[in-house]
Amino acid sequence: MNVGDSCVESLWVKLKGVKNEGDIMLGVYYRPPSQVEEVDEAFFKQLTKLSKAQDLVVMGDFNYPDICWETNTARHRLSNKFLDCIGDNFLFQKVEKATRGEAVLDLVLTNREELVENLKVEDSIGDSDHEIIEFMILRKGRRETSTIEVMDFRKADFDKLRELVGKVPWEARLKGKTTEESWKYFKGTLLRAQKQTIPLCRKDRKYGKRPAWLNKEILHNLKIKKESHKKWKLGQITKDEYRQATRECRGKIRKAKAQNEIKLATGIKGNKKTFYKYIKSKRKTKDRVGPLLSEEGEAVTGNLEMAEMLNDFFVSVFTEKSGGVPNVVNTSRERVSLEDRIHKEQVKNHLGKLDVSKSPGPDEMHPRILKELIEEVSEPLAMIFEKSWQTGEIPEDWKRANIVPIYKKGNKNNPGNYRPVSLTSVPGKIMEQVIKEIICKHLEGNKVIGNSQHGFVKNKSCQTNLIAFFDKITSLVDKGEAVDVIYLDFSKAFDTVSHDILIDKLGKYNLDRATIRWVHNWLDNRSQRVVVNG
Q: Which PANTHER family does this UniProt record tie to the protein (predicted)?
């Protein structure tokens, strides 16, 4: 493929994608050690042009022996200019081992990190003093149009929804029903009302979505630009006047985009999701799981097969129960106080704190819906929660989870490099918080938690832990005493907690029988399904 600049020793070919596979620009480059700066600049222009247009992989002998790829630093000016080019074009350099002597001269660059995997530096061929570089190019599909439908909240009739749910006589409807029956009636009522008042749209639909930077002033300038174009075509204004209107509009758009990016960056602490959503929108491809490699070394690309592989791995790190469930009758007290009942206001408080940007669980109860109906649903939820606490019965929906695998680092074809994120029932999570408050109230009231514990304790954190630690260490050092410190980090600590030990401890701390029974049933017979590229 001809990309100009014949003075540059580079060869480019375009690998055409078939079906849903995207095109890949593949390049080979040789840079002589004595190459002049003008030729370097010509190659940089090639990289800049090609990396912005499509997926790119370029390899070759770049002859920059002074570059340290661990720190991305170099001693010479030309080498630093090359590093600047890589950084400006968001390119990734994949070779980590020396390819000639102690130097990394042969490089593999790509504008999409996950495109190049399984890179190895092997023995040389014949009399060559350069090592062989072997790698795989994982061809990804173009962004597929999602067939998944989600609620279009912009067109929702929330007033009608409140009217439909608000007229239900919940106390009469839930009376005499079990926890499971009460939950199913509540869920069915909400989903039917939701279907009548909120239309659906495709998950990745972009039509009608206005960019955050597109404010009223920009819309006004776009209108002026459009009108100027019409006037220029009709001969009412000169071409220079039209160009001036275009320049002004373009300048304000650039300024608005820059201000929006600054706003996202400065507000990342309070709103990380919006920031990363913006970053994701700028990427050429959608983050997708896989392809994965099976134990036999075969590539697995089907969503169902990959979901099964990931599920097998996530299950493998779970600790099986060590024995029978402790007898809570002998290890806990009766629930004697009716002051600990779950009240409507308590549920309303939790509903008000819901993050409406979060995803629903398998029960399809969206946090946006629950928050919009805070006055209408807090009473029936309080009744269901109280019934669940009294009887220990947990609705099946609350014990199901959709597991979304999130890529962490390393090879994307290794199931161990994905972190499971569990999407569970939102009402179930609220009930979980209510039970947590009950347990914490008991533990704090009976002074069970020691002052040395900082994790998961109200008004304490990693910072308070460090302050207490350094205070202890410095006081010992001031006294001239020797100090030995052992740092421990438990691998997959939260995934491997023994349920039996947990239940046993709750009983020994004299927690009431109803709460222990609820916790036991909450942990027992849970199920999950892994959702891949859904």
A: REVERSE TRANSCRIPTASE DOMAIN-CONTAINING PROTEIN, TRANSCRIPTASE, PUTATIVE-RELATED-RELATED
Contact indicator for 411, 297 with CB cutoff of 8 Å: no
Higher pLDDT, 151 or 53: 151
* Token code pair at residue 94: 């994949």
SS3 label, residue 233: helix
- pLDDT at residue 81 greater than cutoff 50: yes
Q: pLDDT tens digits for 179-191?
A: 999 999 999 999 9
Encoded tokens for 323: 């024995």
φ, ψ (nearest 5 deg) of residue 387: -65, -40
Q: Please, are residues 531 and 404 in contact by the beta-carbon 8 Å criterion?
A: yes
- pLDDT tens-place string over residues 381-435: 999 999 999 999 999 999 999 999 988 877 778 888 898 999 999 999 999 999 9
Of the chain, the end-to-end C-alpha distance in Å amounts to 37
Distance, in Å, from the CA atom of 502 to the CA atom of 329, rounded to the nearest integer, reads 16
Are residues 63 and 33 in contact, defined by beta-carbon separation less than 8 angstroms?
A: yes
CA distance 534 to 531: 6
Please state which of the ranges 92-101, 129-138, 209-218, 372-381 shows the lowest mean pLDDT.
209-218
Token representation of residue 240: 């220079």
Q: Which three-class secondary structure state does DSSP give residue 97?
A: coil
Length of the chain equals 534
Question: What does the alpha-carbon distance between residue 128 and residue 347 come to, in Å, rounded to a whole number?
Answer: 73
pLDDT band at 327 (very low <50, low <70, confident <90, very high): low
In the block, tokens 């962004």 appear at 143
Q: E-strand spans in 431-505? A: none
User: 523, 494, 519: which is closest to 442 by C-alpha?
Assistant: 519
Secondary-structure class of domain 10-137 per CATH: alpha beta
Confidence of residue 207 (pLDDT cuts 50, 70, 90): very low
Tokens standing for 167? 């007229």
In this model, does residue 375 exceed pLDDT 90?
yes
CA distance 220 to 256: 13
Residue position matching structure tokens 């075509």: 233
| Distance between CA atoms of residues 427 and 161, nearest Å | 18
Delimit the CATH 3.60.10.10 region(s) of the chain: 10-137
